[in-house]
Amino acid sequence: MLKQIIYILLIMLLLHNLRLKVTGLILSKSKIQMCEDRGQSAAKEGIAGASDPHNVVDGKACKKKMVVLMSVKNGQKEGTEKLMATVSRVRDETEGEFAKMYNPFVILLSMSAITINYPFIYTGHTVNNEPWEEIILGKSSWWKAISRYTCYDAWQARDGANHRPTCGYVYNEKKKRIPNSQGFCCICSLADKLDYTLSQARHRQRGGVACQFLTNNPQSSAHCMRHDDLWYSIHYFRPSYKDFTIHIRAKDQETTVENNKTVVKWVNGGEIVLSPRRKAGVGKNGRIIAHYVGTFQTNTALPVLQSFYLLVPFLSKKATTGPTDHDQMKHGASRYLVMPRDMVDVQNGMCNKIGVGFRSFRVQASSGQGPGCHQLKGDCLRNQPKHYFDEDVARVDRGERPFWFPAQHGKFVGAKTHKETDKSVFAYELEETVNSIVSLEISADDVIYIYSRSTGEIVRAQADHFEASSGNGKMSVVIRNTGHVTAEFTVTVEKCTKGLHMIGERSMSIYAQKTTPVSFSLMTTGFKGGAFECEVTLFDARRAKLAGRNITFNTSSPCMCEQTTCRCVCEEGGGVKCITKEGKFWVNPKQHETVNTNNWWSKTFGWFGGIFKKIGSFFGGIFSSIFGIFGLAKYIIPIIVLAIGACVFFNCGGPLICKGFLKAAPIGKVTKLLPSFGSKKSKKKNKKKEKKEEKESDDDDDDDDDSDPPSYDEAVENKKKSKAKTTIKKKATKAGKSVKGRIQGRL
């Protein structure tokens, strides 16, 4: 009994001295007597000593072995926790004998960060970065009545046939024409020209063409789908898995004498590496057997990417820049695109989706007419990878969380190829702290569990202002280990103003005299902006408070706009800006002109057409100059009709018919039939005027009677004139009566 008491006192004294030396704290210490019994079956097999429990160290009947379950955190550095074990005898492998060992060895545990790996597999499909629209205007002349001959978009029976499409064809790697790659034409029809001339409500022409009669301006446009030099390969994600490594390193204590001084050194004593693929290992000399038990589940769900596509960029052979120079490739995997599957269409190539195809572009307005001819330029080519890339670049530049880059789903590590499986994976680092359990079987007489404890401080803590419910809130905290040992610290964010989602704590291991940044995501529970305050607290390994700070920040209300075809962002002045992903287009300054073939009839009609073209160009220049000066171009058709009517009127006796009509059917008589055309006063005035004219006519006759009698020739000439006047009066009277009868009949 006395010996046991003395033994306990010696152990307590030893532990007290040990705690002062390592500047740590002893958490637990115990002795366990464990024996290995191989059973009677082993004895029957002839194994010596099998029936007796056997100690592998000293050959005695029982072995002292400590079984320890230890937890290790992801990202925990070596030296944060350690086990100190003491062994009285070990086997010398060189001499093959047992030797005494009085110096202990130390077991150090560390764990890498946990990465969530997403294997991705190529689907066999590629999409273009930014398909764009080339617009080619058809060259026209004012004398050409039919505009459809200035643009062609029909598929030819064979390549090289007559009337090759204005856009041409796109060829695949086998030099074969790709169907529907010839684009489509938009042609001014007769109805379009009449609407433009006579109506104020005119249809928009996609190519910017003004549909007019008798003009040299283009009356047709070809719309061609072209491709960018950058392409994206489409990949789908497989279910994720976790990857990490746990390092169990042993260090032996050696004592040497140097310059008459005793020096204690720790030398490498072997290492065991565990992972989800290797769950057990044995250390040097069989002193340690380690088993990976498992990892606790996270509080938050891991991202599920099976409903997304991964877009990986690559350059075509025609590209003039390299991957290191291209803006969309030089940043590597951090600028790949992770897009929802419903935004990508690699099967049908629908308009305004990633992967738009030639067929969808052409069916907008094939054969010269269709709704696509009245759409905006670049329609059907919106929402392409280039548009999403530029949008996220702008968001990152503003310090916001991206929508389409990999960082949208968490802390992105990169794309890598696994060494053992040779598979490509997309890796994210788990930001939440979780514990993994390791079982250690240690051949030792005694084990001491020690963890380091140090002092620390908060160097900086701040949160930027952000938009409510945007997911862009971020709090940054910088921690410094002011002690002299590697230790573990915990940072919490608590006592926040109402309206913020719960913020989890962060644990990290920090080397002595080093700093480590810690970030927290902030999210409001509502859309209303306001002021918020939170308390940041730093704890050591024993959960003792080391420092604390209060942080204040503001949130603004998000931008809302009543439009569904764009994304709303706030402007600096407080307004709302609508951002749309419009398709790219380019208007070719060189107009397309129909090329004649080498057939004899084409040459013949081409010769005549050339003559008419020169004549038309001459008069067309005159017409365009005249009507352009006075701004009468849009009234050219009514002016031409009025000119033709005036010509017929004056050259076909129109004035004489009107004169006779007026004399045969005076204004007064007409107004009598049409009361709305005059009043009673106007009728009296007309009667007085008629009497006055008759009196003047009689006076003229009297004057003629007083003059000298005419000669024979003059008499004949006067007779002819009188006869002609009588004939004209009869015709006029007859015409007037006819008109009068028509008026009466209508009334």
UniProtKB/TrEMBL annotation:
Leader sequence segment: 1-24
Entry's Gene Ontology BP terms: single fertilization
Basic residues compositional bias, start-end: 680-690, 720-747
Compositionally biased intervals (Acidic residues): 696-708
Keywords from the UniProt entry: Cell membrane, Disulfide bond, Fertilization, Lipid-binding, Membrane, Signal, Transmembrane, Transmembrane helix
Superkingdom to which the source organism belongs: Eukaryota
GO CC terms of this entry: plasma membrane
Topology in membrane: Single-pass type I membrane protein
Transmembrane segments: 615-633, 639-662
Keyword match Signal: yes
Domain Generative cell specific-1/HAP2, chain residue ranges per copy: 61-560
Family of this protein: Belongs to the HAP2/GCS1 family.
Name of the protein in its database record: Generative cell specific-1/HAP2 domain-containing protein
